[in-house]
Design goal:
The protein has 264 residues and is of the alpha+beta class. The chain has helices at residues 28-41, 43-46, 80-92, 246-263, and strands at 2-7, 10-16, 50-55, 58-63, 65-66, 101-108, 111-118, 133-142, 147-150, 156-161, 166-175, 182-186, 194-203, 212-218, 221-228, 235-243.
């Protein structure tokens, strides 16, 4: 749209009232900067790895938290002090851990780890404990990562190399309800991102319904993503797959595009 103005008694066109916008396409560099800025704007979501749980009771996504300083024993021991730390953190966020088999994804000294905390309490006393709860576990994943498992005296754990790039851990874990706890974990899911877990209720006399819970870390706190129960035969199984953070994938894709552009 143009305006008019009078010059020497004659009407002439003036400057445009509205000037068209510059319609040049966004450069690749500007596009890359825009994507990077958007990624940084949402780090809590875009930079969180998560695990997808598949089971007969449902599918659940468990986003990763951070619990540095645990799972650092070189002898596959899931220290009771580590279990106390996890129970205290979860209890602080309102998660009940007593009488529960709690599964969570968190970054530890062993890398991104899938952890099972069984009947966890923040303060344990193993001095005169006598195991009265017993859980069987059979878990598989690819070779290249480490495992951790601990229960009271009388617990047993066996590791097998299946010879096809797969490792198997069979364990019978016992603990004293209200006095100690037990735990199992796979470390470094970045190396071994998929696996299976089978649970067996050998003698869980202090566990009610919805005793199996899958936890997720979002919005700076832990919450329950889903619950499950043992079958009438006392069994429960699930598989899992680690999904890299969407933000990390986007950055890797962007880096790849940038690299290809430089070679043109």
């Amino acid at each position: 749209m143009r305006t008019f103005e009078w010059v020497d008694g004659k009407k002439k066109l003036g400057d445009p009232l509205f000037r068209p916008m510059n319609k040049q396409p966004m450069s690749f560099l500007n596009y890359k900067n825009l994507v990077f800025t958007l990624l940084l704007a949402s780090p809590a979501v875009l930079f969180a790895d998560y695990v997808t749980i598949n089971s007969t009771s449902g599918d659940y996504d468990m986003y990763a938290g951070n619990t540095w300083g645990i799972l650092n024993n070189p002898n596959h021991q899931f220290a009771l002090s580590d279990q106390e730390i996890l129970a205290a953190i979860l209890n602080n966020d309102g998660i009940e851990t007593v009488g529960k088999l709690s599964f969570m994804l968190t970054t530890t000294d062993a890398g991104l780890s899938l952890i099972g905390l069984f009947d966890g309490i923040p303060i344990t006393d193993p001095s005169d404990s006598l195991a009265d709860q017993f859980l069987g576990i059979s878990a598989t994943t690819s070779t290249g990562t480490d495992w951790f498992a601990t229960g009271d005296t009388g617990s047993a754990t066996d590791w097998y190399d299946m010879g096809n790039g797969t490792q198997l851990v069979n364990a019978m874990l016992g603990w004293d309800h209200g006095q100690t706890s037990a735990g199992f974990a796979w470390g470094d899911l970045g190396t071994s991102p998929t696996g299976t877990v089978n649970l067996y209720d050998i003698s869980l006399t202090e566990f009610a319904s919805d005793s199996i819970q899958f936890l997720t870390y979002q919005n700076d706190h832990w919450s329950v993503a889903g619950t499950a129960d043992f079958s009438v035969l006392g069994q429960y199984a699930f598989s899992y797959q680690m999904i890299p953070a969407p933000g990390a994938i986007a950055l890797l894709t962007l880096a790849g595009l940038s690299g290809r552009r430089r070679r043109v």
